[in-house]
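From the shared-data thread, chain only:
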Amino acid sequence: MLEKLKRWRWAILIAALFILGLGYSFWPEAVPVDTGEVTRGPMTVGITDDGVTRVHDAYIVSAPVSGYVTRIEIEPGDRVVARETIIARMAGRPSTPLDTRSRRELQNALAAARAAERSARARTQSAIASLDLARRELARAEALAERGFLPQSRLDAARTEAAARGAALAAARANVEQNRSEVGRIRASLNEPATGTPTGSGPVAVRSPTSGTILRILHESEGVVAEGTPLVEIGDPEQIEIVVDLLSREAVRVRPGAPVAITRWGGEEVLAGRIRRIEPFGELKISALGIEEQRVNVIIDFNEPLESIARLGHGYQVDATITVWSREDALRVPIGAIFRSGADWHVYVVSGGRAVERPVEIGHINDEHAEVLGGLDEDEEVIVNPGNRVADGRRITNRN
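Structure, as C-alpha cells:
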C-alpha cells in the first residue's frame, strides 16, 4: 500500500490541489457593502414647498375717475406719505379729433341752429307784441265792465286771451334758450383741442392713501384710463410675510404656531418662522405637469430680527419646511437601510461578518432617517443601500 502511495503521491497531490482550487473558485466571496449605525438623536419630519414673500398690508391705488392721467414720475422703492405724496394728476379726457366730413356736418348744423335761434327771437318779439295788445284789450274790457257796458263773458274772454299771450311769450323765450344752448353745444364740438391735450376742469391730484414704499408701478405712461384702473402698489417692506400654497391633504397635517425653517432664499443661513394662519378655502390650480391640485394658502411670519430679512422684498421666492413632528432623542436608522418585504419593513443587520435580515417597526420617516419603534437596538450596525447580491446569511465586508 505504501508503495502504491509513493508511486502515485504526485498525482494525488496535483488532484488535491486541483480540487482545492476548484472549490476556492466557486466559494461565494464576501459582498462589499456600506454600513451605518442605529443612533439616538434629534429627528424632525416636515413638509417642504415653495413659498413667496409678500408685504403684510399692500395697497393698490386706482384711478378715482375716468380721464387723462399724467405720467407717474415716482419709482419703485420711493417712500410716500399718507395724504401728502402726489402719485399722479388726472384731468378730463381729450375730445375726439374731427374728420373733414364731421366738421362740415357740424358747421352746417351750427348754421341751422343759429337760424333757428334767430327765428325763435323773432317769434319772441311777436309774442311780446301780442301780449301788449292783449293786455290793452283787457284793460279796456275791465273799464267797460265796471261801467256796465260790457258783459261778463267778454271780460272773461279778454282775460283768457291775455293769459294765453303770456304763456306763448314764455314758450318763445324758452325756445330761444334751447336754440342758444344748441348753438353752444355745436360750437364746443367744433372747438377741439390739440391732440393729446386734456380738457375740462382743472387736474385732480391722486394722493397716497397710506405711508410706505412704492412696490411697483402698474400704469406708468400718461394717457386715458378708466375709473378703477390700478396705478401703483404701496406697502411697507418691513412688514413682510411668506405665503406657501400646500396641497390640501398636506395642509391638514400642519397647525398654526408650527415652526418653519426657511431656506434657499439667497442667503446661506436658515431663517426661522412660524405659521400664523391657514386659510380655510382651497383653490384649484394646475401643476406644471397639467395635474389638477387643490391648494391651500399657509401664512408664515418671520421669527428673525429686521436686519436678517432686510434683503428680502415683495414677491421673492423661498423654500419653507414646516415641522409636523419632532423628537430630541429618537432611535433612528439611516433611511437607506430599510426596505419593504411584503407589507413590513426589514433591514440587514451586520452580525459576525454576515448579513442577517430582520423585520423592524418604523414610525416617522424624513429625508435622512427613519424612526425605529422596535426590532433594533442602539449602536447596532446595519447595511445601507443593500444591492441584489446581499441576502440573509451572506458574507459581507465593509467597503470603507
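The two ends are 54 Å apart (CA to CA).
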